[in-house]
Structure formats: C-alpha cells, structure tokens
Amino acid sequence: MANGFDELRSLGEEGFDYLKLRWASLRLGTVDRLSSAAARVAGVVLAGIVILCAAVFLMVALALWIGEMMGSYALGFLIAGGVFLLVGIVFWFAGRRMFADPMVRYFIDLFFTDNDYKHGMRD
Description:
Order of helices and strands: HHH
Oligomer: single chain
Mean pLDDT: 82
Number of domains: 1
Low-confidence stretches: none
C-alpha cells in the first residue's frame, strides 16, 4: 500500500514541477512579447518625433514661400495653417481605420501566436 502512496506523491510532485515550468514559460513568453511591443512602440514614437519635426520645418518653409508670393507673411502662415488644419481633420475622421485597427491586429498577432491555435486557446 505504501508503494501506491509513493507513486501518487511522485505523480503530484511531477505535476507540481510541470505547473512551475508552465508558469515560468508563460512569464518568459510575456516578457518576450512585452519587450518586443515596447521596442516597436519606442521605434514608432521616435520616428513620429522625427517626422513631426520635418513636418514643422516643411510647413514653415511653405508658409514663408506662400507669404513671399502673396506679399504677406501673415497670409502665408494663415494658408499653411489652414492646410495643416485640413490634414488634421482628415486624420481625425480616418484615424481609427488608419491607426487603431492595424494596432489591434498587430497586438493580436503579437500576443496570440500560431502555437495558441494548436493548443485550442483561440478559436
């Protein structure tokens, strides 16, 4: 009878070891995915800052050029500001389709790998 209890205890210990390994695997996978996402976000933020700086310089150059052509720098900045406002309105209304939906798809692909399909975690 003691032999059966020893086997049961051994099975319990192996099950507990398996759970610890699965927990460690889950934590490592989460760290990997989060660090990948953080690196991606940092890259997008830095690219956005550079693009924003370039856009500001281009808009100032456009405003100065229009102002020189019209004879009034104030009118040139007003027209360039209007162009910027129109672009902002377009981004406001089309922003979800342009930014949010692709980000959701990216994070779904990042956090739910093909292995998740094999183990029945996602249908």
